[in-house]
Specification:
With 145 residues, the chain is α+β, with helices and mostly antiparallel strands. The protein is built from 6 helices and 6 strands, in the order αβββαβββαααα.
């Protein structure tokens, strides 16, 4: 690693410019009271929404507080001033609604998903008894009688 402060600054600026060109950033944001979701329009033309109260720091927020969301800086974050909450747009897109510790607590509190689908009864047990049987009168006609 280069210890020259000027070289490190140039490299940091290069990474920042690359990030601005390639990472999706927020262009517009709004809270929808009806659905309880925050809708984010991105600079690449896509939009996404997430359940506001699933994000760290927003669980007990009122609708009025959630509606006060602002875009941070160049669109890489969302900010709620009254709640002192900041969320990363790239993190939200990756499904991260808070810090690693917060996400670990959320996963631990969630019901465990089924390891495998429930077993179904064998097909023969559920099929009508006549399956595969030919009516005796029809059998006689088929055999030329």
């Amino acid at each position: 690693m280069n210890n020259d402060p000027d070289a490190r600054l140039v490299e940091a600026e290069r990474r920042g410019q690359h990030s601005l060109r390639n990472e999706p950033r927020a262009r517009a944001v709004r809270y929808d009271r009806r659905t309880g979701r925050v809708h984010v329009e991105l600079t690449n033309g896509c939009t996404f929404a997430f359940p506001a109260r699933d994000a760290q720091g927003l669980a007990r927020a009122s609708d009025a507080q959630l509606a006060q969301v602002k875009i941070l800086g160049l669109g890489l974050g969302l900010h709620w001033e009254a709640l002192d909450v900041d969320l990363s747009v790239p993190g939200l897109l990756a499904g991260l609604f808070g810090t690693k510790a917060y996400m670990d607590r959320q996963r631990a509190a969630a019901p465990a998903p089924h390891a495998r689908p429930p077993r179904l009864p064998p097909l023969a047990a559920t099929a009508p008894r006549a399956v595969g049987r030919v009516n005796p009168l029809r059998r006689a006609r088929l055999n030329g009688a």
